[in-house]
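REQUEST ID: PR-0412
SUBMITTED BY: lab tech R.K.
PRIORITY: routine
TASK: structure prediction, single protein chain
INPUT:
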Amino acid sequence: MTRYAEIEFLFSSEILQDEGWREKYKESKKSDGVVFYIILESLSDLEYVKEKLKNSSEEYFIYCISKYSFHQ
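STATUS: complete
OUTPUT:
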């Protein structure tokens, strides 16, 4: 059996502003899961992003958060 996961890149502002990104990926579920790579726009965003994602109920979403800022 072949398994398939989508890979998506998101900026931290998309997570923090809650621009409907979760619904977008829930509706287009063509894969077994989605791996999100979160790109921090500021190092100060790290804790806020982690807090926003901590209570995620989507069992097929995996989050990878960079510990480095995009704007260094």
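NOTES: Residues 5-69 form one domain.
REVIEWED BY: pending
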